[in-house]
Amino acid sequence: MAGPGGSRLLAWCGIAGPVAFTAAWAVSSLLQTGSSATKVQLSGLAAMDARDPQIMIAGFIVLGACSIAFGAALGRVAAAGRAGPLLVKSVGAATVAAGLFRRDRLLLAGPGFAGESWHNQVHDLVSGIAYAAMIATPLVLARCFRGDPDWARLSRPLQVLALLSAAALALFASRAVQPWNGTVQRVAVTLPLVAVVLVAARMLTLRPGSGAAPGQEHG
Fold this sequence. Notes:
Oligomer: single chain
Number of domains: 1
Radius of gyration: 18 Å
């Protein structure tokens, strides 16, 4: 078992991952000359024909790896239950896969677009899993935290962030606000990342061993 220092390091991953991912898409969007950031989706920034796709690929992989590490830290928090940490790790695994199995094109349609490759189809599948798990995670954690005095204050903010993200994703999927779909997607993804940061920050402010699962208080 990881000691208190190791647990805090893993908890910091809950902040480092979202920050790195946000920085990656912000930089990639600025470098993607010739295409408006309001139109280009996050996956498009890592596509085969994107400019400097390695930046966004790294963003996906770092976020995914940090999410898996943070899920391990969250598994030591009794208030988080079993489902919460598992969902966080699922988001992480799906995010890494989304970065490795890249989309074919910067934009979803355009001249010469003749269908999707197998890795584009895998990307779409794992992205759907990531979206679902990202919304479910704060909702599950909000329910688990409700009865714990150390964590109850986060319950309502997590619920609100999850519901706002779900609404943004529904708007994104409807394509009703084209050409602003890329912006809507960024909002939809950022909201659950804020939820993760809030949970990680709370973990880091609790005294060592507080709220730890039975048998894990001393590592």
